[in-house]
């Protein structure tokens, strides 16, 4: 009898292991400041991108995918938690003196998948807490290697020379730390060392995939490029027609190829959800060192389409259409509930703002699960509302890249402009050039109503509304 019990128990364990192995692996590759038009599938010229092209051929490309906010910290917080970043206080781009950190009470994609039996790893740029214990291993990641914030946040100029001018904000910044787990293990103190990051992060990602091929895993590869200062490795320097920027895109394309190759060689491709996207639009004032918004208006740090609309590829063989194009309105907040649905994990206990797109991914429905998107920026400024193809821009002070751009790694000036209320039909005017509010007053009223709901919920500094449902960040000592 005891022997029979042992046999039955062994069978159950085996069945459990089989069920576990069928959970899809999840890989999210996030570029930093890569614009909508920075690769061949989205319109770039002069830069060969065979692996981005392969993503387009083997998966589905989304054309109306938006980051929740057009800047680093806010966008990454929204992606990992499924929340508008202003709801959880993680706005802007954190600098070394910022004591805020993502509240450990917020559940992330990593923590939810880890609870569901996944091995989890992050390699690259974090930007959600400047010091331990507010680093990835405290938010669901078993493994972390990378940097705490953007690689231009260091005590050096774009050529890697030490800042000596005490009036330069960078003078007081520390060297760029390299972190493994909870420890600073090295510092990046030269452009040459910066140029090694893409290869190192890619190699660590490949190693993680190979080490965990027999169990479900979640890999978050957060590349630090093509954010300035550009630092392509020696083997890619001079390879493109567009200088260091093109060389950097080619190196990122190589990185994508290494991940695709590894999945194929380890026979994991068919059971892996692979997502490739960007945190926000391009930093256009850097001119030839910046990317392309693909014809959309403005770029990073603005709530025009060039700031939030970014490329998005999805591959999941036999589940997601190969060679597909999807024009539904989707945001990076939607990834958490969609990945949770795809893996069978549970949703966060607290309110989130993401919408489950799994039925869309699988081709089960043809209607967009998301109709409304709020464009927040600054600490808590509601600057626009989108409803289907309509976008109501609300009065605000905006940055603008109209004017003189920089060159050879030097940034040009960023202007400021008072933006009046305007209504745009993105179906006919994706460049947001023609205000049609006089023609469609009923649509203005409808979107204004949505704005009022957002103000009551999450607040709006522009109208002095604190909102009822905002949560607090953690504060580091």
Automatic annotation (TrEMBL):
Domain Sulfatase N-terminal: 24-344
Any one GO MF annotation of this record: arylsulfatase activity
Any single Pfam family the record assigns to this protein: Sulfatase
Ranges where the record places region Disordered: 458-477
Database matches in SUPFAM superfamilies: Alkaline phosphatase-like (SSF53649)
Database matches in CDD domains: GALNS_like
Domain of life the protein comes from: Bacteria
Signal peptide: 1-19
Protein keywords: Hydrolase, Signal
Protein family per UniProt: Belongs to the sulfatase family.
Protein name (record): Sulfatase-like hydrolase/transferase
